[in-house]
Amino acid sequence: MTAAIAPTRRQVLSLYKQFIKNANQFNNFNFREYFLRKSRASFKQNSTIQDAEKLSKLYQDAKNDLSALKRQSVISQMYTFDKLVVEPVDKEERKDINKH
């Protein structure tokens, strides 16, 4: 049986940043916020795990999930959605509103 090699802290942080970056690329507010919340919660929940084999499995699963997230964020960018009331207004839009 081969010993599993746990990912380094740098690798995990890099993966986390990629999750956040790709989640932020969703055009739809609800999807974007959902994936941001889910990513943060998942990484926080697993932050105390020390077992190398379990960490290696979680890391590989997260890489697979990231691939799916990337594909879905690209698909999301192909569609436009109306802004929701809860979404922050862009600075440029604020300037236009203030002119009227």
Automatic annotation (TrEMBL):
Annotated GO CC locations: L-cysteine desulfurase complex; mitochondrial matrix
All residue ranges annotated as the Complex 1 LYR protein domain in the record: 10-66
Pfam families: Complex1_LYR
GO MF term (any one): molecular adaptor activity
Listed GO biological process terms: iron-sulfur cluster assembly
PANTHER family, per the entry: LYR MOTIF-CONTAINING PROTEIN 4, PROTEIN C6ORF149
Protein family (similarity comment): Belongs to the complex I LYR family.
Protein name as annotated: Complex 1 LYR protein domain-containing protein
Species of origin: Naumovozyma dairenensis (strain ATCC 10597 / BCRC 20456 / CBS 421 / NBRC 0211 / NRRL Y-12639)
Gene that encodes the chain: NDAI0E04530
